[in-house]
Amino acid sequence: MIAASLLRDELEAQGVTDVVGLPDNASAALFALLEAGSRMRLRTVTREGEAFALAAGLWLGGARPMVLIQNTGLLESGDALRGTVQRMRIPLVGLITYRGYSSMMRALGSVPDTLDPALLGRADVDSVALLTEPTLQAWGVPFQRLERAADLPRLRAAFAHSEERQSPVAVLLTCHTSAEAHADQG
Predict the structure, then answer these.
(1) Exposed, middle or buried, 39 (CB in 10 Å: 0-12/13-18/19+)?
(2) Residue 37: what pLDDT?
(3) Which residue of 113, 130, 149, 164 has the lowest C-beta tally within 10 Å?
(4) CA atoms within 13 A on the CB side of 1
């Protein structure tokens, strides 16, 4: 787990004005913290594709938004990401919670290089975990994993990379957020 306050502080340090997304179990503590009060505005949506469209509109209006969704929703939102954010060359960071990552690592030991029907059908591995990284690669969206608090510089780097490329960049959050101060600090 990573303390939600560490993520909030990093997002504020990057000048994020709006967090646009849909809560899930892994991001629940961060959503709760933002809802309780922050310099950033929390804007929840009903579908993940809406998050990219809303973030694009906020960016056009001069804000610095970021998207916070689960990898299942990332797959649902591909057309909004492609047709709006990439096409318009909007520098946007997506913090994507990585459902199934832990069970995939337990079962396989790594992210597989190739996918086949037998692997996608395994009951001990969530297929969305198997599809997350290949999908981002196919869409041309660079990504890094954020696995613990010591990886927070990767989030900072994602904002710089997104600005440099003038396009979206993803950070895959492989652990849950926690309201507890004793969550992974290093």
Answers:
(1) exposed
(2) 85
(3) 113
(4) 16
What Rg do the C-alpha atoms of the chain give, in angstroms? Answer: 16
As a whole number of angstroms, the distance between CA 121 and CA 118 comes to: 5
The number of distinct structural domains making up the chain is 1
Q: What's the whole-number mean pLDDT along residues 38-46?
A: 94
Q: Is residue 64 domain-resident? A: yes
Do the domain assignments include residue 183? no
Question: What is the CATH number for 96?
Answer: 3.40.50.970
Looking at mean pLDDT, say which of 32-41, 63-72, 76-85 comes out highest: 63-72
Comparing CA positions, the residue from 82, 91, 81, 6 lying closest to residue 51 is: 81
Q: What does the block give as tokens for 104?
A: 């995939």
